[in-house]
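Course assignment 3, question 2. Fill in each field.
Student: A.L.
Task: Predict the tertiary structure for the chain below.
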Amino acid sequence: MEKLQWTKDLFGSKLEIRQGDEAIGEINWENMVSSKAQALINGRLFALNREFFLSKLEIFNANDHSLLGMVMINMFNPRSDVVINGKRFELEIQNFWQSRWSWKFNGKEIIVFTSNEFITKDKGTIELLSGFTDEVEILILLGLFVRNQFILFMLLGITVALLVIL
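Answer field:
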């Protein structure tokens, strides 16, 4: 089992993935609320895209622009799935605050994400219960992209609620 760490400034546009002291990946959004991002992990370049209101998240090979995976997110259903290289993986958000979420394959967790903070930084760990594969790299990036979109949605909701109250 390997453990990775991830960090992102709450209002920032860059997320970093580390393995010990070594940076192995990152996701860079055009700006804090952007629906598009570029990602790099283990030397591989990807493009991420979100359609309107979180519903559809896609990941592409940045070199040939081929679609590698797509996940549909429903704010009221904690489970979604994606097919990558003919294999079906299930994303499960495990609590209301999205501080623990995982990818499963054949009913077993293969990647577990945790979030440790939500004040000025969003950071946490990624437990790899299987080794690095092409699918695992894609799932790591999709899992962190989903998390960022949920946080943006929560911040938007809080802002709207404050505007209504004021």
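Instructor remarks: Residues 134-165 form the longest helix (32 residues). The chain has one domain: 2-165.
Grade: pending
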